[in-house]
Design brief:
2 copies of one chain form a homodimer.
Chain A lengths: L1 H12 L4 H4 L11 E2 L5 E6 L6 E4 L8 E2 L1 E2 L4 E6 L5 E9 L2 E3 L16 E5 L16 E8 L5 E8 L13 E5 L8 H4 L3 H11 L6 E5 L3 H9 L12 H26 L9 E6 L1 H12 L6 E5 L5 H7 L1 H4 L2 H7 L2 E7 L5 H13 L5 E5 L5 H11 L6
Parallel strand pairs in A: 12-13, 12-14, 14-15, 15-16, 16-17
Antiparallel strand pairs in A: 1-2, 2-6, 3-4, 3-7, 5-6, 7-8, 7-9, 10-11, 11-13
Chain lengths: 384, 384
């Protein structure tokens, strides 16, 4: 009866009859199940599947086969796994799918992955703890070319009840095909700041998380075709996107935030940072707008020496001024990151030009596990 | 080069090598593409798939086959489709998947579906228009049994800049396995209110969207196994969940909201409503807390005559009082809804007991397309 009602509801919610909706679900699947020994049991109901693999997992080897029980539930237990938050997916007969039993997902425009958190014995800095919590707010604002933009804003605990106190602002930009949701739903920047502010290790601040590709919003809202491959990092398309983002941030997002939030409006109280493409947008926007940002954090990104020579002599021609201007120029990278080599070249270039910066090198690759490490290093030193 | 970089980034983001990540993607797929004639073209890249169907679609027949081109991109054009927002998914060799190229998704704990909006010539009441926009805020609050709850709050345009103005509050509860995100990401209650408030047809109000199944949060945070089948509507489990929700709302959510937001704190300025399970929680919570809510909206839900006789004689024994207490008791249902018969019985029961209520019957089933119709009927009459 329960299952029938479930199927019926599911079928009708999905706009199909039960028969049409999907194979009978049978048992109520719990997945993932994090066990006390830090192993994790993943389960997927697919009575008719031939193979089910655990794919896209950053723990253990990828593509671990699941085994099917009499009820048609495939499962596998992996680990123990190092405590962290990991993306994963299933490959069912070769098709990559999110875990239907898991509501935690990775917001991204081009792939679908679920998220599993393995808690550590001593709660991690990004864990949900019993401390005062800030809020996450989604705003619509007037963006480039008449479009309506979306931006996500973290305000620290107590913000809503105060009426006068003003805060510094960290503009934090996510990676290619990530969305304005990724830095809090995957990066947990809100919980990290809740914990750091409660511990007195980070200054109370507002974090503004813009959407990195306003060109797509314009296309969406004007009904124009979406621009081709958003992944390109060079060519006119990439440059137009980069410039459009900078225009959106400086001419639309910042004025909107400073009009609607209690912000301290000067360069010493504005920081900018980002991951991957967002890091490239960070460096270019900061170097083009030295009057606006005193703190600059590049998470796994760089600008090539050639582009630096071509476009940013304003930064390199007078290192003394640049070193005074930037209270922090921070660059973090993982040794397994596919952008490691380019980042090292960038840092060597800055050294040669006598530009001060702080370098942080860790193990691991181009992952959000590493982004949390970069946040853990940089959030405590902003606005100090 | 672009594709290689994309694959590499995707692979590494997902924590697998390129080879492991998934079949080569080839072209950059745009899906869905809403055409000017209101047909929609759905595309999915799967060079190795044997069959790809458009499943879970509420437009046209379900399970429309897609056809594969030379590049391995499957696609189909359907419609013209009646303007609305619809859930859909693909069935790739029998496996139900979200559209990887579409970031718009249906927040739900038990199934994955993407969303497509077909705009109407005269923008719909739920469309994103060029009007002042309210904000959506995610809050953490101290919930039942020491757990930390999550709740989503809509505040109307201008709220953040005012310091004194107070607002009535609509507590709005989503359906079984929906989340606290569903009423804005699928139901678009925020955009509907933005448009109605701008047009002067609805009163400016705060909307509070709680998570409907606090028992799951407790399990999640205590590491206990999640409770079995959350779909059950009867039995001790269902009753415990129902009671726990009511306790959470009345003893935790409302006090938290009234402490942190500028609310008018009396029954005439509190409304409660919900869809499906959330409608059942609405009716039971309202009937158990007549002192708290003057406006009650049931979207596709009911209480059985047997349960009414057993548990809610406080409502039926003195109809004159009840009819004074509730400024609005509203019940909406679709003729194709699997809860239609039970809703009609409930309404007949109320009639027989001389309890005033407003009935709204529409075509269609147990869908969020109908939920938007119910919101369109009820939002304008709240707090008037």
């Amino acid at each position: 009866m329960k299952i029938n009602l479930y199927l019926l509801l599911l079928g009708i919610l999905l706009g199909t009859t039960v028969a049409q909706s999907q194979p009978p679900r049978g048992p109520f699947v719990i997945s993932p199940k994090v066990n006390s020994d830090k192993t994790v049991t993943f389960s997927y109901l697919a009575p008719n599947a031939k193979t089910v693999l655990l794919g896209g997992s950053q723990f253990g080897q990828a593509d671990v086969p699941l085994t099917k029980n009499a009820e048609g539930v495939w499962s596998v237990t992996v680990g123990p796994i190092k405590p962290d938050i990991y993306p994963y997916s299933f490959k069912v007969d070769g098709v990559t799918v999110m875990d239907p039993a898991n509501v935690a997902f990775f917001p991204n425009e081009r792939f679908k992955a679920s998220l599993v958190e393995i808690p550590s014995d001593e709660p991690a800095i990004y864990a949900l703890k019993n401390v005062p919590h800030g809020s996450i707010t989604y705003e619509y604002y007037p963006s480039v070319e008449g479009s309506t933009g979306t931006v996500v804003v973290y305000t620290p605990a107590g913000y809503t009840k105060e009426t006068a106190k003003k805060y510094p602002v960290y503009y934090l930009i996510s990676g290619t095909t990530d969305t304005e949701e990724t830095f809090w739903k995957v990066g947990k920047v809100n919980l990290m700041l809740d914990n750091m502010i409660a511990a007195g290790t980070a200054k109370p601040m507002i974090v503004v998380m813009p959407y990195g590709n306003p060109l797509a919003k314009i296309a969406e809202q004007t009904g124009k075709d979406k621009p081709a491959d958003v992944m390109s990092r060079d060519g006119d398309d990439a440059l137009r996107r980069m410039k459009l983002f900078e225009t959106d941030l400086v001419a639309h997002v910042i004025p909107y935030i400073e009009k609607n939030y209690r912000t301290i409006n000067n360069r010493d109280n504005r920081a900018i940072g980002g991951f991957s493409r967002g890091g490239g947008q960070t460096l270019r926007t900061a170097f083009n707008n030295v009057d606006k940002f005193a703190y600059v954090c590049s998470y796994a990104s760089y600008i090539s020496p050639a582009e630096m020579d071509k476009s940013f002599t304003n930064i390199t021609s007078n290192p003394d001024k640049t070193n005074k201007d930037f209270k922090l120029l921070w660059s973090g990278i993982g040794t397994d990151d596919f952008l490691y080599k380019g980042t090292v070249e960038f840092e060597d270039y800055l050294k040669a030009k006598k530009i001060n910066f702080k370098s942080y090198v860790t193990d691991g690759g181009h992952t959000w596990m590493n982004v949390k490490k970069y946040l853990n290093e940089t959030l405590p030193v902003l606005f100090k």
